[in-house]
């Protein structure tokens, strides 16, 4: 399964859309994930994708590839640093969106 977490952008073909942290975590709990693409800000007053990253790290539910497609530079760095510190060496982490 491929997951695209974003509250605004359209979901790419071949991905399941999660519009919030809760939906994303529910998908991560029940499936092997090949590609996970994360936006950071998910709506005013809503939890951010750093909560998803914490879930991944704490539960060792690492996808094979992670893209950080957010437009928030500080959110992107927070997610990247936490993933890079804890991810197994086979997990690819990309600072930016998926290539077209």
Automatic annotation (TrEMBL):
Domain of life: Bacteria
Name of this protein: Cyclic-phosphate processing receiver domain-containing protein
Residues in Cyclic-phosphate processing Receiver domain copies: 1-84
InterPro entries (alphabetical): cREC_REC
């Amino acid at each position: 399964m491929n997951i695209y977490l974003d509250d605004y952008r359209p979901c790419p073909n071949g991905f399941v859309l999660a519009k919030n942290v809760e939906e994303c975590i529910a998908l991560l709990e029940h499936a092997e994930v090949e590609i996970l693409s994360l936006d950071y800000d998910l709506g005013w007053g809503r939890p951010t994708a750093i909560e998803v990253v914490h879930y991944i790290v704490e539960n060792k539910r690492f996808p094979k590839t992670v893209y950080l497609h957010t437009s928030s530079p500080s959110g992107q760095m927070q997610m990247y640093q936490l993933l890079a510190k804890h991810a197994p060496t086979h997990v690819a982490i990309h600072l930016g969106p998926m290539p077209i």
